[in-house]
Amino acid sequence: MTQITPDDSKAPAYTSADPMNTEKHSITSPKMDCPTHGPSQVPLVDNELQKPHAKEIIRLLTAALNDLTNEKKCTRCTVESISTQLTGHARDLRAAKRSGAWSKEDKKALKAEVKGLFKPIKKDLKRLWKGN
User: Fold this and answer.
1) Does the residue 100 lie in any domain?
2) Is residue 41 within 8 Å of 28, Cβ to Cβ?
3) According to the UniProt record, where is the region Disordered (predicted)?
4) Closest alpha carbon to 42 in 55, 28, 59
5) Does residue 61 belong to any structural domain of this protein?
6) How many angstroms separate the CA atoms of 84 and 95, rounded?
7) d(CA 70, CA 85)
8) What is the pTM of this model?
9) What is d(CA 39, CA 33) in angstroms, rounded to the nearest whole number?
């Protein structure tokens, strides 16, 4: 299992788990290096977010979140719209995962990247709810 720590100085290279295939898969992010964090620690997530479908979902979610602050828009309708968009995107991701659009090692690497991204958030939320 590939573990990614936020303190890594360079983007990780993922290796195949198949002993017959020993070549390294090096995935780079389409984004510029961050002056604080250096090269992206989540190149697969970055690549997925640069796809046209993901950009469209993000644009729609941004508009929906702006509608939440607009007093002329219905909050319930906006929340339902956000829920529909997120559910649809999750369904599309699940279908891509099952259809073989991603290799097994890409799935594992993407899972590790997402876990690494949300680990600090999870830690902060736990601390908030426990009251520490």
Assistant:
1) yes
2) no
3) 1-42
4) 28
5) yes
6) 16
7) 19
8) 0.56
9) 5
* Number of domains the chain contains: 1
Domain extent at residue 101: 41-119
Residue type, position 90, single letter: A
SS3 114: helix
Structure tokens at 92: 């599309």
Q: What does each C-alpha distance from 8 to 39, 82, 124 come to in angstroms?
A: 9, 34, 21
Classify burial at 90, counting beta carbons within 10 Å of its beta carbon; exposed 0-12, middle 13-18, buried 19 or more: exposed
Instruction: Give the strand pairing for 24-25 and 14-15.
Output: antiparallel
In the three-class reduction of DSSP (H, G, I as helix; E, B as strand; rest coil), residue 14 is classed as strand
- Identify the band that residue 19 occupies on the pLDDT scale cut at 50, 70 and 90: very low
Residue among 67, 28, 61 at smallest CA distance from 47: 28
What would the pLDDT profile of 83-110 be if each residue is shown by its tens digit? 988 898 889 888 888 898 888 888 888 8
**Would the pLDDT of 75 be above 60?**
yes
A 10 A CB-CB count for 64 gives 20
Spatial contact of 108 and 1, defined as CB atoms under 8 Å apart: yes
